[in-house]
Amino acid sequence: MSRVRPGRDDSPDRLYTLTGGRSRSGSDAFDLVTLIVAECDPVPGMQSEHAAILRMCRYPTAVVEVAAELGLPVSITRILLADLLAAGRVSARHPRAAKYRLPEPELLEQVLVGLRNL
Amino acid sequence: MDSATSDPGAPRQALSSTADNGLKIVIVGGFGVGKTTMVRSVSEIRPLNTEETMTQAGEAVDHTDGVAAKTSTTVAFDFGRITLDARNVLYLFGAPGQERFWFLWDRLFSGTLGAVVLVDTRRLADSWYAIDRLEHHGTPFVVACNDFGGPAHTPEQIRAALDLPSEVPLLFCDARSRESSKQVLISLVQHLQHLSSLQPLP
Which segments does the entry list as coiled coil (chain B) (predicted)? Predict the structure, then answer.
């Protein structure tokens, strides 16, 4: 359900059109920090947002970065990414951190080393 | 490096092709407490901004008309990035501390390593809700007091005012300083290591 929010910059109609009328991706398959990698180059005739995603994901790019660069809400970006994933045009590298418990000691050590090297 | 000329926004520093594990730390706090400043101090990219639209059944919102209303809220948040090594990339999220964003938080928090509660000692009450939410969610956190040059408080005074358990680290920092902000993140990870050592379960 989408409600028109007066004063918003983004026209809901435009966002609706981008996703073919869908307002949710059906799953939370993409975390904010899932890294997306393009598996092919853009082709002529491709939806411009899809082409832009393939260009920016030549190197791994987090879902949240894709959203920021496209200037689209994360929820809309997830739908676009789900289409590309289903078509095999991108792959997704999901976070390894456990969702509801503390991370492995090895991972914490890697994070600490990385931060100290900043 | 790729040319990003046809993409909107400024050229972006690409991650290594070996990067395969995104990690999250959330920086929470009241309005104007320095969340974005801290992100900027340690991020390797200019902090980016995006928004998430959340639809939430409005059970706790409004019972007046008996309609099972849903509320849709758009929340903007900032984030930055730190490449830790060839595989691990840490994303820092500056999350709004206001109460009405609690459902965004619960979603942001899931899968985060932990949180930094950034505190302005002149407005301690702004942090109560954040701390309550984190405790409720079971997300490990440290509290960092950003130095605004206000009257000095002792750690004991701040702990008492925040009702902060003794096991939660309390730090003082300058969010404008890269080194100081880095130390806050290091303290959070050390706190996680400590918690991890208390839990010998597999």
Answer: none
Taken in order of first residue, the domains within chain B and their CATH numbers are 21-198 (3.40.50.300)
Q: Is there a contact between B81 and A62 if contact means CB atoms under 8 Å apart?
A: yes
Which DSSP symbol is given to A40?
S
Interchain CB distance below 8 Å, A111 and B4: no
Report pLDDT digits (tens) over B169-190.
999 999 999 999 999 999 999 9
The tokens describing B179, both together, are: 């080194």
Chain B contacts of A67, Cβ < 8 Å? Answer: 50
Residues of A in contact with B138 (CB under 8 A): 100
With contact defined as beta carbons under 8 Å apart, do B95 and B27 qualify?
yes
What is the pTM assigned to this prediction? 0.85
| Residue in chain A lying closest to B48 (CA) | A68
Angle at which helices A48-56 and A74-86 cross, to 10°:
80
Alpha helices in B78-121 (DSSP H): 102-109
Whether residues A93 and B24 touch (CB distance < 8 A) is answered with: no
Structural domains in chain A, CATH included, are: 12-116 (1.10.10)
